[in-house]
Amino acid sequence: MIRKAEERVSEITKTILEGMPREAMVERVKYEGPRIAIHTKNPAYLLSNNFIIADIVNMVKKRIVVRVDKSLRKPVEEARKLILNSIPEGVEASLIFFDKVLGEAIVEVKDPRALLSKGFDPIKLTAETGWKVVVKRAPQTRSSSMQLIYRALSENFEARRKSLEEIGERIFRERLLEGEEITVLSLGGFKQVGRSAILVTTAESKILLDCGIHPGARNPIDMYPRLDWANLSLDELDAVIISHAHLDHSGFLPFLFKYGYKGPVYCTEPTLSLTVLLLTDMIRIAQAEGREPPFDMRDVMEFVRHCITLPYSMVTDISPDVKLVLNNAGHILGSASIHLHIGEGKYNIIYTGDFKFGRTLLLKSANTNYIRAETLIIESTYGSRSDVMPSREEAERRLVETLNQTLNEGGKVLIPVPAVGRAQEIMLVLDKYMRSGELVEVPVFIEGMLSEANAIHTAYPEYLSNELRRRIVEGGENPFASEYFTTIDHPSKRDEALGEEPAIIMATSGMLEGGPVMEYLKHIAPDEKNKIVFVSYQVSGTLGRRILDGASQASVMDEGGKIRIIDIKSKVERVEGFSGHSDYNQLISFVARLRPKVRRVIVNHGERKKAEELASSISRLFRIPALAPNVCEAVRLY
Ligand SMILES: [Zn+2]
How many angstroms does the Cα of residue 579 sit away from the middle of ligand 1? Predict the structure, then answer.
């Protein structure tokens, strides 16, 4: 197999070398994961004459990247000095990271536009230093998750270099089988919300879409995807693709590496940062509760080293017969629908992941344009005909009303939020209404994890709504740093939030399954003056769901690890309409708007009744077969 791959690369190398002018000084052509890397001794020439690479991409239909030949690389400290000396006055680099595998020098600055407009010239510096200089936007406040990613990439880099080559050899291996069967296996997240995992098998490849855990499950057989049922050995897997960072889609990743997976994980760049944040937090929560975490930081770091990030709408080969495109899903920062393009475009699967077909303050609405599409796999969190949510204006009005009620009576409001998604959306809403005077101005306390997630949002404005992007890119503003917000970055500061005055407290986890929110819950729930406001979906089996369904008591863990029963006397309210999921009408209009029209629909990610109702609505309205399988079923597509 490896010999074949070598022959393939030599074929591609030949085409590339033939199309390359002598000035390009190409030394080598190598696989670098799903890309083909051209190593040159004259990087400035290739980087300033973009059309040469564009022409070759058109010819070989592969992703190509320019790399500087290793012989030109100056020692790191010398290169760092040269780069630092070229940074104009008034601009500050938060960090310069030397990626020894890719030969890149990443320069992170808060305002890349200012840097580039003041004469900083990455191409010239690339030629001078022998490192490919890449300018990136730094988060507006420090993000420890993003730091951790750099640390992971700076360790074990020989292994990472080798792994990228091996991944490349595997992707570009020759097709052996001429079969055309395509099957979808439901390994988790079917007729349920949690542990999303779908295995797509083709004649040549096995690809795992999402790989999550079930937050409400109490035993392992319900908590994790059923890879055992699929009889799948991890080295058979060609790729894992993650639609977005939420743990019910990503939480099983470290287990894969713990048990020996060595292949690539594809997702967007923000999804990588946010997943690291959520996985790290999962370990931290387990430790705080005196539980042995099911995986450790080593497994998370391995995931980072095997992660290949892709921007939206870039076509990438991920196996001999499958190409992948990620598109905006509008659910959380970096969330993507997964488009698999199988067998030279013969068959196309669109998997929505969690998606929002509607605009929010935070994000753009989900993409509906695909070049080809035969099967749609669609989520059904709000798939019942009765799941029609109030409009955004109505939702905002109701939230402001219910907050004002409690705050005016001197009570406190606890809003349990998932760290990523609803937290940022609700912060933007609170800020907007306090500014306009419609919402009582009180301090809003934000637990530390949220400000870490906020920081990551400010590093990727191109993934945000147009208005937020403008505020960050043009205004240099941090939309999550309003004067109303106080960050609680240490447990000792919680007393401030729990003092006498009316206040709003936002904390994780969003479904009251551990995390700092539990500390606030103990104090806030027993007092009838207070209120708990839910703004996100509560998975069945979680404490959040039980309280929402009217539980009058809850058991919580004390510092000593003892279980204590608390009374729920506070008011409990759900405000709908802020969800990052599409409601019933949005799900149906998404299918109606989808281009081209699909031939078959598979429904997942919804409780039994929701999944079944959405399937029957779709087949009735669009006259196409739509089914809602259980976990552990196989659907033959082709
Ligand atoms: Zn989600």
Answer: 10
C-alpha 331 to ligand 1 mean position (Å): 7
Give the CA distances from residue 387 to residues 218, 230, 562, 585, in Å, rounded to whole numbers and listed in that order: 27, 33, 39, 8
For every residue of 434-498, which 3-state class applies, written as one string?
A: HHHCCCCCCCEEEEHHHHHHHHHHHHCHHHCCHHHHHHHHCCCCCCCCCCCEEEECCHHHHHHHC
Separation of 338 CA from ligand 1 center, angstroms? 14
CA of 185 to the centre of ligand 1 (A): 21
Full set of structural domains in the chain with CATH: 2-71 (3.30.300.230), 73-138 (3.30.300.20), 151-172+180-386+581-636 (3.60.15.10), 392-574 (3.40.50.10890)
pTM confidence score: 0.94
Alpha carbon of 54 to ligand 1 centroid (Å): 36
Burial class (CB in 10 A: 0-12, 13-18, 19+), 3: exposed
DSSP state at residue 1 = -
Q: Is 173 helix (H, G, I), strand (E, B) or coil?
A: coil
The CA 245 to ligand 1 mean position distance, Å, reads 7
Number of Cβ within a 10 Å radius of residue 292: 7
Taking a 5 Å cut-off on Cβ, the residues next to ion ligand 1 are 246, 354
Contact between 367 and 329 under an 8 Å Cβ cutoff? The reply is yes
Cα 246 to ligand 1 centre (Å): 5
pLDDT digits 0-9 by tens, 427-481: 999 999 999 999 999 999 998 789 899 999 999 999 999 999 999 999 888 999 9
pLDDT tens, residue by residue, 569-597: 999 999 999 999 999 999 999 999 999 99
Q: Is 332 left (phi over 0), alpha (psi -120 to 50) or beta?
A: beta
Residues whose CB falls within 8 Å of the CB of residue 383, separated by 6 or more in sequence, listed in order: 584, 587, 603, 606, 610, 611, 613, 614, 617
18: number of Cβ within 10 Å: 9
d(CA 440, CA 407): 7
Q: Are strands 600-604 and 375-379 parallel, antiparallel or unpaired?
A: parallel
Per the CB < 8 A criterion, the answer to whether 34 and 320 are in contact is no
Edge-to-edge strand ranges of the sheet holding 132-137: 93-99, 104-109, 132-137
Contact 284, 242 (CB under 8 A): no
Ligand 1 centroid to residue 300 C-alpha, Å:
20
pLDDT tens across 517-574, in order?
999 999 999 999 999 999 988 988 899 999 999 999 999 988 777 889 999 999 999 9
The letter for the amino acid at 358 is G
Q: What is the pLDDT of residue 470?
A: 95
CA of 357 from ligand 1 middle (Å) equals 14
314 neighbors 63 (Cβ within 8 angstroms) = yes
From first CA to last CA, the distance across the chain in angstroms is 27
Give the span between the Cα atoms of 556 and 545, in whole angstroms. 15
Q: Is the pLDDT of residue 1 over 50?
A: no
* Tokens 């997942």 belong to residue: 604
